[in-house]
Structure formats: structure tokens, C-alpha cells
Amino acid sequence: MTGPSSEDVRAEATVKNAAESAAEAAAEVAAEAGKTAEVAAEAAGVRIAELFDLGEFERVRRLFDEIWRSESGDTPISVELMRALSHAGNYVAGAYRDDLLVGASVGFLAAPAGHVLHSHVTGAPSGRGVGFALKQHQRAWALERGLEHVTWTYDPLVRRNAHFNLVKLGARPESYLPSFYGTMDDAINVGDESDRILVRWRLNAPHVIAAAAGDPYPPVVPAGAAAGLRDQYDRPVVGAVDAAVILVAVPRDVETLRRADPRAARAWRRAVREVLGGLLGQGAAVTGFHPESGYIVERTG
What we know:
The structure is a single chain. The chain is α+β, with helices and mostly antiparallel strands. It has 8 helices and 12 strands. It has helices at residues 6-44, 54-68, 79-87, 130-144, 159-168, 206-212, 254-260, 262-281, and strands at residues 47-50, 91-97, 100-110, 116-123, 149-154, 172-177, 196-202, 226-232, 235-238, 245-248, 285-290, 294-298. The strands form 2 sheets. Strands 1-2-3-4-5-7-6 form a 7-stranded mixed sheet, with helices on both faces. Strands 9-8-10-12-11 form a 5-stranded mixed sheet. Helix 1 packs antiparallel against helix 4 (130-144) and helix 7 crosses helix 8. The chain is globular and about 75 Å long. It starts with 5 loop residues before the first helix and ends with a strand.
């Protein structure tokens, strides 16, 4: 019985060397992400850590109650579920300023197994850098475990969230999900349908790495872009949606509009669902978000 040929030995060595090189490269990226997360936390004046015990989960529940203020008393996630997720090796983290919890994020491993973390809920005061620091901590956590992507959903009508997700983080929309959570009665979503956009954050993409280091992804509106949906006196006006590049506007402040003019808010919901949802359903790609023009959508065919 003969042993392996010299060609087989060389091929095996090549595969082994490639695997070792890939592992070393992944470790370097994860280490750099960890440093970036530390810088983001320091800039926000917080300390971010994984959470493991019931007392910590109860503090998260109270914080989320203060943010969402559900009329029925329901919270975005329960203490018991946070305990189960954490115990099973999923992501539960909190941001502390001194000893005060000022932000938290909860996610779980998703399909395909070994590649994706789904970020279910993140809550923090806006405009203070806490949310950005939490997402950078989440990115480093995922990369340390060999994960390549993080996904989550957000309301496409909320302008600041679209800017945060697409510009500051560099995530990209994948699909439009009409009335994804059904009826919601919290102070943020009450009176509106729960349409969501699913985004994917490609953790190793060059523009994501640059955004993590403080260089946001610039929104570039190509010449000849058509206004598929525009804002006219706080009302949506549908335009041309058959161009190569389509701009889809959103209201300036949909949360205020829900209270001041519910009919206008509902009109925006249906118009964005029709135009943006329709384009994504046809295979078009959202390539950015402009502060004035809204979503930049490009047909890929």
C-alpha cells in the first residue's frame, strides 16, 4: 500500500497554509475592530460590556420601557428572554456612563449558521454617540466569533435612523417588510403600521471599515436621478420610478407627523411602501441615503 503522492502532500500543505493565513487575517480584522470599538466608546463617554445576570437584564428592561413606553406594558424584550439568549452564547450588551445604564443591545445568531448575527433591538439616547459605540462593540463581538454579517430591521420613514444605518454605519437594505411586527402600541410606533427594512452590515466591507473609523459612507446622487417620491408641504408626491436611479424621499420628522397629522403620516407610509418597497421587490439596490433627497435607489439590471 503506497502513501500519499508528493502532489497530494503539496496540495494539503497549500490548503493548510491558506487556512492559517485566512485565520490570521480574520484575527487582525477582529483586533482592529476591537480597538475601533474602544475609541467609539471613549468618544461617547461610556463603558460597554456584555451582560450576564438577572439584575443587569432588569436594568435593560427598565431602560427600554423608558424609551418605548408601551401602553400595554409590553417591552421590546423580556428579562427571561435576555437571560436565555445570553446563556446560549448570544449578544446582550449594555453601555454605562459611570454606573448608569444609558444604552443596550440584544442580538441572536441567525442563518446561515456561523455567518450572521441578527441585532433584534438597540436602544440609546440619540445624538450622543452611544448607539454608534454599541454597534461598534457589536461588530467587534461578531468578528471575534468568525461572523461576517450583522442584520437588523428599522422603520424606513425615520430619517435619522436611515442616515445612521446607511451613512454612519454603512449597512445596506436588502428587503422591504410590510407590517412586519403587526400592530404596535408603544409611544414611538402607535397609530402607524410597522413596515420595516431589513439591512445587512457586511463587517469586512471597505466602506464599513472606513465608517467604523469615523469616515462615513458619502451619499452620492448620480446625475440624471429621478424623483420617484418627493416631499411637497409634508405630503408625499409620487413621480417617475422607471429611471436608472430613483430618489425616494421620507418625511422630515415622521414621529411628530404621526401626532400632528396622522392622515399625512399614513399617506407617507403607503407611498414609501409602494415606491421603495416596490423597487426593492423588483431587485433594485439602495446605495445610499442623502439628507435632502432621501434613499438613492439604483436599478441593477
